[in-house]
């Protein structure tokens, strides 16, 4: 009887360990690699087009199954004052419009995966919905991107058009209103996770 209990206990322990191991193999959490990630914001003004680049990003991408492109979680945070245009005056106007002293980050958080379409060789077309928070205003947005996954690395690449006023951000002006910024923005990203 005692021998049978030990056998059963041993078998249950083995099955539990096997189950945990399978879950660990399947679920994979990757961290955003800032030095290998690019996020640029493109806009217009009454005198010229402009763009800014995010110099400091963090985040994570969690897969329930990386081989099949099954995303469980995605979050990205951009330091507001890491947005740089190469022109200090423009950067100051951007930080003022985004109220960067109060809202130190721009964030995106996945809420739903709509679809994942395999294209072969670890490439997937992905459609998701998530919460984008800019200057303290959170909006649900749809986002499409290409996912390339291999081994312990994944890259997502895409673009999204938004309006500043969607997020209660007043488009910045300069020279007493002589220069005005357009409301429309295009965000382009190529983000690497390892």
TrEMBL record:
Recorded superkingdom: Bacteria
Any Pfam family the entry gives: YceI
Signal peptide: none
Coiled coil residues, start to end: none
Domain Lipid/polyisoprenoid-binding YceI-like, first and last residues per copy: 29-194
Organism: Pseudotamlana carrageenivorans
Gene3D superfamilies listed in its UniProt record: Lipid/polyisoprenoid-binding, YceI-like
Protein name as annotated: YceI family protein
Alphabetized InterPro entries for the sequence: Lipid/polyisoprenoid-bd_YceI, TTHA0802/YceI-like_sf
